[in-house]
Amino acid sequence: MDLLLKGGWVVTAARVEQADVAIEGEKIAAVGPDLAAPGAVVRDVTGKYILPGAIDAHVHYQMPIGDLLTADDWFTGTRLAACGGVTTVIDYAEPASPAESLTEALNKRLEEARDQACVDFGLHQVVMPGQEEDEGELRAVVAKGVTSFKVFTTYAQRLSLAAIGRLLRQARRLGALVTVHCEDHEIVTAKREELIAAGRTDPAYHALSRPATAEVKAIRDVITLAGEAGAPVYIVHVSTGGGAEAIAAARSKGQQVYGETCPHYLLLTESQYTGPASRLFLMCPPLRTAADNDLLWRHLAGGALQVVATDHCSYSREQKAAGTAFYDTPSGVPGTETLLPLLYSYGVRNGWLTLPQLVGVLAANPARLFGLYPRKGSLKPGSDADVVIFDPRRQVTLTAASLHSAAGYTVFEGFNLQGYPEATYLRGRLIYDKGTFLGRAGQGQFLPGRIAAT
Ligand code: URP
Ligand code: ZN
Ligand code: ZN
Ligand code: ZN
Fold first, then answer.
1. Beta-sheet strands, E only, within 256-386
2. Please, what is the angle between helix 135-143 and helix 161-174, to 10°?
3. What residues sit around ligand 3, an ion, with C-beta below 5 angstroms?
4. Beta-bridge partner residues of 93
5. Residue 105: CB within 6 Å of ligand 1?
6. I want to staple 214 with a disulfide (CB 3.0 to 4.6 A). Which of 22, 187, 424, 440 is the partner?
């Protein structure tokens, strides 16, 4: 044995138990009471939780909007992940236009990440209009280990509902999972034009420009299409209680619909848009109401939503400041580093989630949905030794200065936390310890997802 974590509480999606964890090379070797491991380095973790490394299943590194790239690249983005107890991230391979093939886009993205990533990573394949018809290309990316597709119902790269239906049928045949950004394009476009005509273009109008009805309608439409196709579907960044209710209703009828939400939709409201820093809170879909926060927590606890991911998309303070209106301010916020401690403090300590549910929504569920389980999201013998030592007593007030994003701000500034990651291991290697990053660029590996056997 190489490493023995002694005296902690092991938390998995199934249970909490007092047990030691033995690590051999890159793998978990044993979990149990009073393990002996002659020759191993022993770390006393009495009073701490031992969690599987968290997975942030929705991130965007060096993502372009026009001429701008997000501040965090593959190196800084995955370094801050390590500092937050996140050992796997899933980003996107997005063609520059419908003329670029899926495999070209995928190879470019893999090339960008190579030698840069500090934690392991997977990719979702963005499918542009027309590309849903090309079974050969879809099959090729699945063969390379990209087992989830991503489409949009709005933005320039939007697919029509008919095209999303076609992709769902292709994905069903391939065993892949379609993930969808849901906002109804007609509703969003009409609102935007109405606000512009009325001269209401300040970033403060962002939430009004993308109303809850747009998300709920798009989610309902996509659920209907998935039902018709007999395919599972995954709704990214659900921001509305109504969207969560639509997912819950479909699931209660036996449909395989999955939902993801983000810490900002659970913890912040649209009141941020009336403040002086409204641009910093501008993301799509926008922040909603306290009633939405509450319903999202309820549906996360009840299981209708299975995943919390961050949509980490870190346009910097300076990039945001250049925006003059809600429609030209770069959209997106940083989040990966605060994912686990926020969900612990505001989810577990506030009584919404149990510790096993925390591990479910941050590790086991995304690992299962994206073909990484039990290599990731688990502490079973044979799983990758991706481990977080979590100190439930450590008190932290979040400030941008103490975090590692190049964005230069956090939307959770001033949030008081109790409980924080103390150390992070990636495949047995200590990459973060008590405030210090110890990893290096290039140690993160691409994780091919596996299609569930049917
Ligand atoms: O505003 C956001 N969320 N930017 C990232 C792209 C997306 O829609 O997820
Ligand atoms: Zn060894
Ligand atoms: Zn999106
Ligand atoms: Zn996103």
1. 257-261, 307-308
2. 50
3. 181
4. 125
5. no
6. 187
Helix axis angle, 212-229 relative to 161-174, nearest 10°? Answer: 50
Ligand 1 atom nearest to 63, measured from its CA: 5
DSSP state letters, 133-151: G-HHHHHHHHHTT--EEEE
DSSP 8-state class, residue 347 = I
Q: Give residue for tokens 């549910």.
A: 357
Prediction pTM value: 0.98
Q: Is the CB of 120 under 6 A from ligand 1?
A: no
Q: Is 108 exposed, middle or buried (0-12, 13-18, 19+ CB in 10 A)?
A: middle
| Cross-strand pairs, 263 | none
Length of the chain: 454
Q: Tens digit of pLDDT for each residue in 385-437?
A: 999 999 999 999 999 999 999 999 999 999 999 999 999 999 999 999 999 99
The domain made up of 54-370 has a fold known as TIM Barrel (3.20.20)
Q: Does the domain at residues 3-51+380-437 carry the CATH identifier 2.30.40.10? A: yes
Domain residue ranges in the chain: 3-51+380-437, 54-370
Please report, as a single letter, which amino acid is at residue 449.
Answer: G
User: What is the phi/psi pair of residue 311, to 5°?
Assistant: 55, 35
Interval between CA 5 and ligand 1 midpoint (Å): 38
49 C-alpha to center of ligand 3: Å? 32
Instruction: Please report the ipTM that was assigned to this predicted complex.
Output: 0.91
**Contact 257/306 with Cβ under 8 angstroms?**
no
Give per-residue pLDDT as tens, 356-396. Answer: 999 999 999 999 999 999 999 999 999 999 999 999 999 99
Cα separation, 160 vs 267, whole angstroms: 32
**Nearest Cα residue to atom 7 of ligand 1:** 284
| pLDDT over 90 at 292, yes or no | yes
Q: Which two tokens stand for residue 444?
A: 């993160």
**Alpha-carbon distance values, 302 to 89, 287, 295, 305 (Å):** 25, 22, 10, 8
CA distance 431 to 90: 19
Q: Closest ligand to 385 CA? A: 2
Q: What are φ and ψ of residue 257, in 5° steps?
A: -115, 135
Give the number of the atom of ligand 1 that is nearest the alpha carbon of residue 284: 1
From ligand 2's centre to the CA of 24, what distance in Å?
5
> Is the beta carbon of 284 within 6 A of some atom in ligand 1?
yes
70 phi, psi to nearest 5 deg: -60, 150
Measured from the alpha carbon of residue 313, the closest ligand is 1
Average pLDDT, the chain: 97
Q: What is the pLDDT of residues 205-253, one digit of tens each?
A: 999 999 999 999 999 999 999 999 999 999 999 999 999 999 999 999 9
